[in-house]
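REQUEST ID: PR-0412
SUBMITTED BY: lab tech R.K.
PRIORITY: routine
TASK: structure prediction, single protein chain
INPUT:
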Amino acid sequence: MIVKVNLSKKENYYTQRNNVNYPFSSCGVTSMINALCASNIPFPILKNKQPEDYLTEMLESDLAYTVAKTKYNLLIKQGYPPRLIHGMLEWAVNRFVGYQADIFIEHTSIQTMIFSLWVNKNACVVDGKFTKDGHIVCVVGFTYEHGMNANWEPRSYSDVLLNRIQSIIIDDSYGNYFAGYTDQRGNDIEFDLETFNKLTNSCGNAYDKRMHVLRRE
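STATUS: complete
OUTPUT:
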């Protein structure tokens, strides 16, 4: 039995290429908007402004720098602006939607990601080496093979078996990785598990991920 989960909503795919602010480096905020849409989490509709541009402006504000200097002062001293710090991305998203919709986890398993997508119907956001300078993408689905009945779902992340994961599906705000990003449409790009793990091996272990896990209120 092959299970395929894809939370992506094609009509709501957001690309970073049309962003007013930092179109070539706003993958983080744009991936978070894609994740909110895929997770069916409502957010404010802004007049004459894209939501990802609004998040960027939040992260460029004096308040964001004050928070970042308190919580991530070493990164600020190293030259990272708040918009490039994962914890600050979490801060901005949660302020934007009005509750803790984003939980950033420094080290977590790919099984946690699959369980979140499968059972909780919530997207995740991960970073990786999709581009030379690093990139952030939204994980919206997977395919998984199991020998159970059609209605079976894992009861916890530990029920997810790595050798049964066949592919990972992402919404990439920059475009299609496999086309060298010459194809700017990055909705529903499917990776085999080995390739996905190689690209997202940020923590030194293929199955240990830096991850934003979304949740509905």
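NOTES: The mean pLDDT is 93.
REVIEWED BY: pending
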